[in-house]
Amino acid sequence: NHPDHGNHPKHETIMNLVYFYWLEIVALIAALISVITLITTRASPAFTSTAAGKIGHKFLLVVIAAVLEHLFMLYLSPKPVKERLRSQLVIFKDKHTYIMTYLYIMCFGSFIGYSGSFPKLITDLFGYITVYGCTNEGE
Q1: pLDDT tens digit string along 41-92?
Q2: Is the dihedral of CA 51, 52, 54, 55 positive or negative?
Q3: What is the model's pTM?
């Protein structure tokens, strides 16, 4: 049941590398378009006048890059790559995919939030400890 890594003809390995780098280049093009959008819109008053505009600007750039990258993958990829991608897109029809993604984001996001705010919580509750031996004072 194990995959047969290394037992492929040399031309198939080379084509797999070509397909891999094709997808990498497509993703870089999508990122480049997003960076160009960033550069051309960074001085726009709609995005710089408020904090919400600045945050919305970053989210807009991420959405542009993600949507372009997916569209490029689906429509600009070679035929064998498209077939593999379409066979993998079946997971989006399963509602459990979305539930598990949401659960993962909640768990990981709360972990990051708690770990980032825990030192502040300790400082707020107990203050800065300046007892001899707890700091470098007195050495």
Answers
A1: 888 888 888 888 888 888 989 999 999 998 998 888 888 888 888 888 888 8
A2: positive
A3: 0.59
φ, ψ of residue 56 to 5 degrees: the values are -60, -35
Helix and strand numbers, DSSP H then E, in the chain: 5, 0
Angle between helices 10-41 and 51-76 (to 10 degrees): 150
SS3 content of the chain, % helix, strand, coil (to 5): 80, 0, 20
134 to each of 68, 121, 125, how far by Cα in Å?
A: 53, 18, 17
Closest CA to 84 of 18, 6, 13, 19: 19
Are 137 and 129 in contact, with CB atoms under 8 Å apart? no
